[in-house]
Amino acid sequence: MKAVVLGVSHRTAPLEVRERLAVSSERLPEALELMHCAFGHAVIVSTCNRTEFYTLAPDSAHLEWAPFLEALYPLEAASIQRYFYEYEGDGAARHLFRVAAGLDSMLVGESQVLGQVRTAYSAAVSVGAVHNPLSRLFHEAMRVGKRARTETRLSRNELSVSSASVRLARQAVGPLAGRHALVIGAGEAGKLAARALVQAGVGTLTLTNRTFARAEELSRELGGRVVPFDDMRRALAEADIVVSATEAPGTVLTRAALEQARGGDGTRPLAVLDIAIPRDVDPDVRGLPNVSLFDLDDLNGVAEVHRQGQLAEAVRAEAVVDEEVARFRVWWQSLDVVPTVASLRQYAEDIRLREVERALRRLNGLNTEQQAVVEAMSKALVKKLLHDPVATLKEQNDPRHVRAVHDLFRLSSKGEEADVAQSGGET
Q: Quick one: 230 and 248 in the same domain?
């Protein structure tokens, strides 16, 4: 078996494509079930800058993704597959390890993605869509992500999407002291944005969310006022900065609503930061006078400056990933050895049982104690004969030895996937 990942990210697709391919938390169980039925194993990692599908496939197989993609999205696979990348085997493991370590993020080293990987894995477990050895791959990825941050200084200069957005706001409206900020959405991204604004010294913070209680909870932590989601016109009118970070499936802030809220005040600068996917803010907002609209793709400039500052630590983290990929490869290859050793032992045990039965029939009259001696001797012989071959298989973990054992002893194959399942993935 091999691990396989099909994905799309900020590296391969513009925001208008990524938002159409995102899998919302509401739709995730349905998507996992669909993928599980199609491929037998499924983990879906969907963040603001990536959507990735992880599964398993036989070594010799190349997965046909088109039927699954067309079942998941109201799109023709041919129109979107050019945006996807696909990795198999070591490549899939390396990619997931780099994602968990923050090395594949737009903002190198950001730690939020590690929690998103953990959440994605937990969601797959909750619907029974992930099994060993894919489960082991995700456990290792989470461990590698932690190790990369522990053994390097990646997290010391960490920059999140939310904090990077605040930097853009400062560029658009100047110093934040005394400024009015409105945060739309009290989910994880909204919380991070609100904290970043407070830390940056914003004067007044207003929070709104479809679930009013969640906005109130965040306001108790950070201060500021709360307004009902359907009544934020006044807050929009007062705002110098608007950050929208909801999980809504469509537009939350239209050009007409913002134009109406601002009235005739087109001279005051306003920074609108849309860090949601799908996007919350109508792109036509860019046409309003003195309104600067920034979306996720507009973070590239900030990201590049940050990437240069993280370069040395990123190189160290890549070395950690290389070491862990090599380590994981050894474990993965051992999955072939486990069922082979089990088959070899069963082959020898079947022969032993037949020969002991034949011997006991010929030695008619042996008492129970004498029969036990024959039984023990036969088991000892089999154990001694198999010791060196089994030890060699486990120690050298060489696919050529595995094939040779199957050929020499004519071991029956139960199918590659069944063998991996029997191994339990933990050796």
A: yes
For residue 37, indicate whether it is catalytic: no
Strands (DSSP E) found in 234-377: 241-244, 270-274, 291-294
Task: Kindly tell me the burial class for residue 60, based on how many C-beta atoms sit within 10 Å of its own C-beta (0-12, 13-18, 19 or more).
Answer: exposed
Residue 84 CA to residue 168 CA, distance in Å, equals 29
Which residue is listed with tokens 């999980």? 247
Is 237 found in the same domain as 189? yes
Q: What Cα–Cα distance (Å) separates residue 21 from each residue in 13, 46, 61, 313?
A: 10, 9, 25, 32
**What residues pair up with 273 in beta bridges, in sequence order?**
243, 294
List the catalytic residue out of 21, 48, 56, 320. Answer: 48
| Other beta carbons within 10 Å of 426 | 10
**In sequence order, which residues have a C-beta less than 8 Å from that of residue 367 and are 6 or more positions away?**
none
Is the domain of 142 the same as that of 247?
no
Mean pLDDT of 118-138: 96
In a domain, 302, yes or no: no
Question: Domain limits at 237?
Answer: 161-294
Query: Residues 145, 166: one domain?
Result: no
Q: Which amino acid would we find at residue 319?
A: A
Residue pLDDT, tens place only, 404-425 = 888 898 886 444 433 433 334 4
What is the per-residue pLDDT for 425? 40
